[in-house]
Every structure is written in structure tokens, then in C-alpha cells.
């Protein structure tokens, strides 16, 4: 991430433009590209610094000030801290208003005349010392070295505020100079002081932040225009996190949603929901009871109260006249009269909400677990396997890099996939329980949900394929794996970018793009698209269902190229084919049906590598 | 406390005893030379005029690098002093400097009695009273002074 290589990024970036015109990737020249990073990192809008590099950077900032303002480094550091380590601003402000800044930062430019007398009384310890053995800041207030030492050490032990140490004289406020500090601080305190100084640069600056991974000493600089936007960054220690909220990287979901989701996962609220959904209270002692088996005759294990599970009346009232011990007439009649409706409805709703949450949470958690194991595999066992493989096949390890790349991709995609479930949970709440985004009409939302699930399903399909392929870990899969890594990376990257743009935009692009991009597209594909459009604008009907069925076909048919050819069959199939060609055009490659290589040359009639003929359009 | 008393503390104590600041008396406790019994007389033309306020002052182990700890023992109605006698004064906290002394601290507290600062309150309700109705608050302060701080 440190090797800045302008424009030398993934080759598919060139095709990016017809999909994203807003330029979520406004890659100006100053942006470095992350040439190794997995798909989720936006083209490197950030840079990782090691501690040494940070020191270097700090030194540069200091020199930028000292060379212009002719003040020493210690003073320059104070000035820079005031201006959040922006040398330009520091210099400018200084020229505008040097006097008041000097006063504020404690840099007086007039020096006290040296004391004439040979001895002076230190006004901290009240002892008299030889004037020569005493120290003073620029203000000339003399204190003995012992007192200076305790003063400075106390300040260092108190924390980063020691960086703004002033002369002890009341009302003086002169900054303590580097010379005095060098003279009195021992090595341990000096090191501590320097660490605070380094930390202050990262902590004061909005553009810099520490990697939150334990024991990681790297800092990340945000290179985007505003400097503090939420971007996913990957540290050199391989920890991927969000620059803004410091949680694990979470595109396409925003920081606030992640926070809500994490709180929800940890909170008791779901326990309560479960209790509400699966238990009834004992009518007497009000303890919640879960009925897991047996008849309707309940005996509370706590208060021994006997009651009927159905009508919750005392069991004593039950018997032959209420319809026998195994039925409850009271319940039936009360239900007919609608008495239990409200309670039932509440319980039903709680159960639905819980099930919905469990659905998303399980998938979120599964992907998370899978990400962790994959990551472990990639970090621990893979290097060994690779060296073995390289021996057996007599291939240099550098040529086997594609395998670790594939693994990195798997890890990365698992994380994105995980967060798409959070996205789904919060975006489509209104369809099922009315908690989601109120601005979007319900039918539009349902349509969005289908479309989202289709995309998510496809991404998931690619990922599963890549994952299983990577697990085989055999040399002959080279092309397959490289191609698949590429396809999966592209797919996930686009998924993230599109979701961030919003589903409406995405849906529009999706339906408009093929017509404009593939004017020579054959008739079946176009009719397929029209049908698709119809079915998509008529959600919650048979058409809507069909779309989902198509999604399945498409998923199974990956690579999409395979869906081509063959005689026209059901409408659903036409649609699948239409989508396949759209997808190819959007993805910027067509995939070989035999080796799955991503071919970038659309005019080619056969696969670049295995020479299998490309299926006819 | 077996450690020898730093010369600074000895000298400060001597000076406090030999040339006391006007309106302030401070003397070390018999059993602990770091513990001072202090009396500050209410400054003239303040609500505390005529009162004599007892305080305790303690010099911690790392004095003078750390500030002395001071607390009012006499009840006082003041926006910057709470009901436990704790004092909100910057030089007792982050503005402490080893060049300050017991004498300067006590003079600052005396000045705080002359000029209460309800904008930086410690006792919220007193400060609110002071801001809403200063006249009434001053009357309460005088009343408290008469009740708690005037031994003949």
C-alpha cells in the first residue's frame, strides 16, 4: 500500500465507467492505487505508515516549519501541534499574526539578561545554588536542575500534556526549551516524551489514525479530499477496518448501521423477544413458561398453580363440561369472539421479527465464522502447503501466488457478504414488519429486496465456487482459480459500490445499460429484458416470483457464458440469457465455459488459454 | 512520615509563622508537619465579612510537584465550594506550579471569597441561586456566616 503506482491498477478499472458514472472512484492523479489489496478497499485512498515512516514524516513537517520560520524544532513542534500538524497552516498563521501566536504557544523572542550574581535561590526548593548550575527556559527564570528534573518528570508521568510544558514561574507561560529537557530528563522519560510527541501527530491530525489491531504500531493516513470520510482500510498487519468508526471494515453498510447491528447482537432485546414469542406467563405467579411437550394441563413448576395452556384459566374449571380434558371450548369460543386476538397477534409478531432477525444473524455469523477459519487457513497452513506444492510440481512459489490471492479474496468476500446481511436486515424491514425505511413505498421496497437478494445470491454463488475451488488447492486449477478470483473480486466490488449508490439507481442502470451497450444484442436477449422489466415492475405477483426463479437459474448457470446458446426455451431462460450477456458487458469480460477464464477480448471467438470456442451470441 | 521533611516545607512553615499573611493564620498540626490548621477571616465588604473559616491543608508526598490538598471545615455558602468543603480553584488542580506556595494558595482562596465565580460552579444549586437572584444568595451567605463562622 506504500508503493504508490499511479494508474497501474486492476485492468478492469477501465470498464468501470459505464457502471459507475458518479465516480465513486474519482481517482485523481494524486491517489495511489492499492495494487495488492482485495476488492473491498477503494482504490487506495489511504497510506499505511510504520513507526519509522511516521518519524520521518514528522521530521519533514518540522523541517518545513523550521526552514521557513527560523525557530528550533521543539518550538516548531509546539506550533505544529497547535495547527494539527499542518505545516502550511502553521506557517501562514505565523506570518499573519506572529506575536499573538508566540504568546499563546509560549515562545517569547526576548531573552532575559543573564543573571549577574553568582548565586541564586531556586524558588521551588528554596535553596541557593550557583547560577551556572541552574537552568531556565527562554524567559530566564532560574531553577535548579533537581527541581527542573522533578518538574519535568512529574509532567511526563502525567501524560501527553507534558508536551506543553511551561516555565513553573506563575504567570510566565514560556515554553520549556528542548535544551532544558535534554539536560534534565533521563533516558526512560525522554523516550516516553518522544513517544507522546509522535503520538500527538497521529492523534491531533484528522487525516491520521492508529490501526486498532492489538500490538500494531502502524498508522493510516486518509488521502481523500475531506480527510475523515469512512473508508475501509487494510493495515500492513492485514487488519481491515473502517477509518471512521474503527470497527472491522464494513462496506457497503454505513457506520451507524454497523453500530446498531452490533449493539443488537449483543443486547438482551432478542432474549426478551424470544421469551415473548415462545412462552406464556403463569396466570398466578407471572413467571414465563415454555411449553415444550405434553397436554394442555399445565402445572407451574414454581407456584404449583394448575391452569389450561389454551385459555389460561384455572384447571379446576375444566372437565367434561368444557369439552373434555383435551380440548378447551372456552378457548375456541373466546377465539371466535376475537378475545385472544391481540395477544396472539403480539406473540405472532414477536415470533416473526425474531425469526427474521435470526435468519439474517445466522447468515451474518456463519460468514463471519467462515471468514475467520479461511483467514486462519490462509495465514497458517497455506504457506507450508504452497512450499510443498512448489516442490512437487517444480514450480517457483512466486507462480503459486494466485492461490494465496484466491484465499485473500475469499476472506475479503466473506466479510462483505456478511455485511450485506446487515444491509438486508435494515433495508427491507418494512416489507415484513414495517420497521425499515419509510420513504420507500412498500412495493418498490419488495422489488428492491428481490433485486438485492438476486445480486447477493449471485455474489454468494461465485464466492462458494471460489471457496471450494481454493480449498482443493491443486496446481492445475491455476487458470480456473485466477479467473474465478478475478470474477469474484469484480462482482463483490461492484456489489458494494452499487449498494452504496442505492438500489433504485442500481436497478435503473441494470435495466437501461444493456440496450445502450449492446446494440447488436440478439432479439431473444432484448425480449428477455423487456420481460424482465415487466416482471420487475410488477412485484409481488407471479412476475416477481419468476424473477427469483431466474436468479436461481442464473446462479446455477455461473459462469454466465454457459447460459448462452441452445434453442429458445421458457421465458425465464430467455431472461437468464439476457442477463448473462448484460453481466458480461457490465463485468467487462466473458467467461470461458470450459476453463472459466475471464476473457477480456469481446471480439475473440475462442478462449485465450484453452481455445474452447466461445458460445455463439 | 519518618522521612525527613524537605527543607522547602520547613522554610515555608517558618515564614508562615513569622510573617503571616493578613487575614490568614496557618500552623502545622502537632503530630504531622505536613498537616496545617488554617483560619481565613472573611474579607471586608464580602458576604463573609466577620466570619472566621476553618480549613485543613495537607502537603502530599510529592509536594511541591503536586498541589497541596485544601478543604473548608466550616460550612460556607459559596458557588465554588461544595457542602463537603471542597474548593474549585484552578491552581489546586491543573494550574498548579511548584513555584506556588502555601501562602499563595491561601491568598487565592481568600480572594475567591471576595469574588465568587458562579460561572464555574462546584455547588450547582448555590451557583444557580447566585445567578438568578444575587441579592438573596448574598443574604443567605451572610446568614450562614453568622450561623456557622462566628465564634466570639
From TrEMBL, chain A:
- Give me the stretches of Acidic residues compositional bias: 1-16
**Gene3D superfamilies per record:** 1.20.120.1750, Zinc finger, RanBP2-type (4.10.1060.10), Zinc/RING finger domain, C3HC4 (zinc finger) (3.30.40.10)
Q: Which family does it belong to?
A: Belongs to the RBR family. Ariadne subfamily.
Pfam families associated with the record: Ariadne, IBR, IBR_1
User: RING-type domain spans which residues?
Assistant: 118-332, 122-168
Name assigned to this protein? RBR-type E3 ubiquitin transferase
Keywords tagged on the record: Metal-binding, Repeat, Transferase, Ubl conjugation pathway, Zinc, Zinc-finger
EC class of the enzyme, as a word = transferase
Q: Where is this region: Disordered?
A: 1-44, 521-579
Biological process per Gene Ontology, one example term: protein ubiquitination
What role does this protein play?
Might act as an E3 ubiquitin-protein ligase, or as part of E3 complex, which accepts ubiquitin from specific E2 ubiquitin-conjugating enzymes and then transfers it to substrates.
Q: Name one GO molecular function term.
A: ubiquitin protein ligase activity
UniProt xrefs under CDD domains? BRcat_RBR_ANKIB1 (cd20346), Rcat_RBR_ARI7-like (cd22583)
Q: What's its catalytic activity?
A: [E2 ubiquitin-conjugating enzyme]-S-ubiquitinyl-L-cysteine + [acceptor protein]-L-lysine = [E2 ubiquitin-conjugating enzyme]-L-cysteine + [acceptor protein]-N(6)-ubiquitinyl-L-lysine
Q: What is its EC number?
A: 2.3.2.31
TrEMBL record, chain B:
Entry keyword annotation includes Nucleotide-binding:
yes
Q: Which InterPro entries match?
A: UBC, UBQ-conjugating_AS, UBQ-conjugating_enzyme/RWD
Q: Which SMART domains match?
A: UBCc
Catalytic residues? 88 (glycyl thioester intermediate)
Pfam families per record: UQ_con
Domain spans labelled UBC core: 4-150
Q: Could you give a GO molecular-function term held by this entry?
A: transferase activity
Which UniProt keywords are given for this protein, alphabetically ordered?
A: ATP-binding, Nucleotide-binding, Transferase, Ubl conjugation pathway
Family to which the UniProt record says this protein belongs:
Belongs to the ubiquitin-conjugating enzyme family.
Q: What is this protein called?
A: UBC core domain-containing protein
Organism encoding this protein: Symbiochloris irregularis
Amino acid at each position: 500500500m506504500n508503493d504508490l503506482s499511479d494508474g497501474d491498477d486492476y485492468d478492469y478499472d477501465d470498464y468501470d465507467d459505464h457502471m459507475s458514472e458518479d465516480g465513486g472512484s474519482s481517482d485523481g492523479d494524486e491517489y495511489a492505487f492499492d495494487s495488492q489489496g482485495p476488492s473491498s478497499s477503494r482504490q487506495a485512498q489511504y497510506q499505511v505508515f510504520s513507526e519509522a515512516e511516521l518519524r520521518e514524516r514528522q521530521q519533514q513537517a518540522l523541517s518545513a516549519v523550521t526552514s521557513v520560520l527560523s525557530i528550533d524544532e521543539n518550538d516548531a513542534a509546539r506550533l505544529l501541534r497547535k495547527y494539527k500538524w499542518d505545516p502550511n497552516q502553521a506557517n501562514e498563521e505565523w506570518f499573519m499574526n506572529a506575536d499573538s501566536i508566540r504568546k499563546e504557544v509560549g515562545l517569547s523572542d526576548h531573552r532575559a539578561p543573564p543573571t549577574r550574581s553568582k548565586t541564586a535561590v531556586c524558588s521551588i526548593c528554596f535553596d541557593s545554588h550557583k547560577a551556572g548550575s541552574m537552568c531556565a527556559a527562554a524567559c530566564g527564570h532560574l531553577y535548579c536542575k533537581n527541581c527542573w528534573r522533578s518538574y519535568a518528570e512529574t509532567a511526563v508521568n502525567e501524560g501527553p500534556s507534558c508536551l506543553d510544558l511551561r516555565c513553573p514561574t506563575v504567570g510566565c507561560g514560556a515554553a520549556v526549551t528542548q535544551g532544558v529537557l535534554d539536560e534534565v530528563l533521563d533516558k526512560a522519560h525522554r523516550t516516553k516524551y518522544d513517544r507522546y510527541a509522535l503520538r500527538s501527530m497521529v492523534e491531533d491530525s484528522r487525516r491520521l489514525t492508529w490501526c486498532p489491531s492489538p500490538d500494531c504500531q502502524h498508522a493510516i493516513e486518509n488521502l481523500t479530499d475531506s480527510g475523515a470520510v469512512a473508508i475501509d482500510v487494510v493495515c500492513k498487519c492485514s487488519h481491515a477496518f473502517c477509518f471512521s468508526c474503527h470497527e472491522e471494515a464494513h462496506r457497503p453498510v454505513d457506520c451507524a448501521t454497523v453500530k446498531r447491528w452490533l449493539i443488537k447482537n449483543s443486547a438482551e432485546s432478542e432474549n426478551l423477544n424470544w421469551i415473548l414469542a415462545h412462552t406464556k406467563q403463569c396466570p398466578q405467579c407471572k413467571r414465563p413458561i415454555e411449553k415444550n411437550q405434553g397436554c394442555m394441563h399445565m402445572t407451574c413448576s414454581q407456584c404449583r398453580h394448575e391452569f389450561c395452556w389454551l385459555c389460561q384459566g384455572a384447571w379446576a374449571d375444566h372437565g367434561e363440561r368444557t369439552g373434555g380434558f383435551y380440548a378447551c371450548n372456552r378457548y375456541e369460543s373466546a377465539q371466535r369472539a376475537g378475545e385472544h386476538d391481540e395477544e396472539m397477534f403480539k406473540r405472532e409478531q414477536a415470533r416473526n421479527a425474531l425469526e427474521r432477525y435470526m435468519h439474517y444473524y445466522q447468515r451474518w455469523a456463519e460468514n463471519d465464522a467462515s471468514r475467520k477459519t479461511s483467514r486462519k487457513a490462509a495465514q497458517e497452513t497455506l504457506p507450508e502447503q504452497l512450499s510443498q506444492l512448489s516442490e512437487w510440481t517444480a514450480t517457483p512459489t512466486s507462480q503459486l501466488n494466485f492461490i494465496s490471492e484466491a484465499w485473500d479474496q475469499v476472506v475479503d468476500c466473506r466479510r462483505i457478504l456478511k455485511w450485506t446481511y446487515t444491509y438486508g436486515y435494515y433495508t427491507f424491514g418494512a416489507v415484513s414488519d414495517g420497521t425499515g425505511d419509510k420513504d420507500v413505498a412498500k412495493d418498490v421496497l419488495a422489488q428492491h429486496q428481490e433485486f438485492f437478494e438476486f445480486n447477493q445470491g449471485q455474489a454468494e454463488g461465485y464466492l462458494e465456487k471460489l471457496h471450494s475451488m481454493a480449498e482443493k488447492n491443486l496446481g492445475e486449477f491455476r487458470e480456473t482459480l485466477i479467473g474465478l478470483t478475478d470474477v469474484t473480486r469484480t462482482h463483490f466490488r461492484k456489489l458494494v459500490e452499487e449498494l452504496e449508490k442505492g438500489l433504485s439507481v442500481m436497478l435503473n442502470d441494470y435495466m437501461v445499460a444493456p440496450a445502450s451497450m449492446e446494440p447488436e444484442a440478439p432479439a431473444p436477449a432484448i425480449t428477455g429484458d423487456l420481460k424482465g422489466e415487466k416482471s420487475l415492475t410488477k412485484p409481488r405477483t407471479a412476475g416477481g416470483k419468476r424473477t427469483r426463479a431466474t436468479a436461481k437459474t442464473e446462479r446455477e448457470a455461473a459462469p454466465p457464458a454457459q447460459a448462452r446458446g441452445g434453442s429458445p426455451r421458457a421465458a425465464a431462460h430467455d431472461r437468464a440469457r439476457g442477463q448473462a450477456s448484460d453481466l458480461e458487458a457490465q463485468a467487462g469480460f466473458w467467461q470461458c465455459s470450459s476453463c472459466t477464464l475471464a476473457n477480456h477480448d469481446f471480439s475473440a471467438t475462442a478462449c485465450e488459454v484453452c481455445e474452447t470456442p466461445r458460445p455463439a451470441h | 512520615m519518618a522521612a525527613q521533611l524537605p527543607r522547602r516545607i520547613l522554610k515555608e512553615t517558618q515564614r508562615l509563622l513569622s510573617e503571616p499573611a493578613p487575614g490568614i493564620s496557618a500552623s502545622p498540626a502537632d503530630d504531622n508537619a505536613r498537616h496545617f490548621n488554617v483560619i481565613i477571616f472573611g474579607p471586608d465588604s464580602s458576604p463573609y465579612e466577620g466570619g472566621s473559616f476553618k480549613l485543613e491543608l495537607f502537603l502530599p508526598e510529592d509536594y511541591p510537584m503536586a498541589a497541596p490538598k485544601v478543604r473548608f471545615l466550616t460550612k460556607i455558602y459559596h458557588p465554588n465550594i461544595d457542602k463537603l468543603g471542597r474548593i474549585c480553584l484552578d491552581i489546586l488542580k491543573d494550574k498548579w506550579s511548584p513555584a506556588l506556595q502555601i501562602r499563595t494558595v491561601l491568598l487565592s482562596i481568600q480572594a475567591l471569597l471576595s469574588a465568587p465565580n458562579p460561572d464555574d460552579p462546584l455547588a450547582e444549586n448555590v451557583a444557580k441561586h447566585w445567578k438568578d437572584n444575587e441579592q438573596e444568595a448574598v443574604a443567605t451567605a451572610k446568614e450562614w456566616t453568622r450561623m456557622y463562622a462566628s465564634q466570639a
